[in-house]
Request: fold
Amino acid sequence: MKYIRQRYILFEILTPEKKNFDKELIIKAIGKKLIKFFGEYITFKVGLWMIRWDPSNQIGIIRVDNISKHHLITAMTLIKELNSTPVIFHTRITSGTIKKTLKIWRQTFSTIPPKREKSELNKHKHK
Amino acid sequence: MFINSCIPWQNEPTIFLKNISLCYKIGYQAAIIDLKSKKDYQIFIKSDFFPNNVPKIKFPLSITDILSYRTKISPISLIPRVTLNPETPKLLKKELSIWKERRCLIAVKSLNKEVLEIAARDGRVDILSLPTLESQKSLTKGIISLARQNECFLDLSLIPVIENEHYKRTKILRVLYRLFLKAKPSAHKYLIGSDSINDNPWLMRGPKETLSFLYSVCNIPEFQAKRILTHNPEEIILKFIKRDQKLFIESGVEIVDIIDERAEGDLKN
Reply:
């Protein structure tokens, strides 16, 4: 039996003009908001991890804990600006498997999701 | 079907179209348009955003009928709503008699408790609008109970929570928390819209995000939060459609079905 079940959230960032945001910038913004609004207790439970990020289309997949899924989406809701440009975090779907999330990505946005970065793959191999 | 219960009307069609398309992108399929005055109402009714010749609806009425209120220009179907802001109860009664027979929903927004009490008691009022902190504070238990008895919806906006930060946000959340304790979402009918986005439409948030907010911050169970975003607005829009198609007579008295003349003849034979 798995003690921690994970959820994969497919989201896109809507902006007035096309922008290429960094993966780190987004994670930092979400993490900051989480700590500021919910505190450290909820933030460590969330287990925030960006699995895929497509900077050209501003679409991504985030992995979280199943219990604190709503906390993460709320933190994303409260973000108003990124690099002083107004943004809306629009969550498309939440799924239990990465395979299904990627399938929905291909169907809804008709783009191919980027592959996992090599450095991340190596980290998992060492483990 | 997710419905945004309040989007302010803008006289410039290009800006309004931008707001609507953003609303569609976020995940709403329909919206209720907030009209502040008689002039706005007339402009909206004559504009291309509102269908002039709506086809007669077939029975039984369903939520798909809302889609017939969509024109070619707008990506989502739009339902008009007029927000009255009277200062005294006399003025409210006067305005209600004017707006009674128009093709729109009637909402009342006021800081005066007497006005709110009369509005909650009146059957012609569909919505009590409470977008700001002050208006939420002015609600008493009596008004809430009257609103519940007359099936009057309570309209909130989460935009001040997103817009403000630090201490101001905590104050707003405190008032919201107390309101949800006074009028529980399980018993009272709430609506959540994007009021006061005139300056910045980028403060609008999607239905799924609003649902998460209600669940995690306001401690409202998921099924109740979903009902606030889907079932309640559907109910009020169906009420409007019935009134628009002249099927609604009074709350509890409405035409349920119309039998064709041919069918009537067959029944007699």
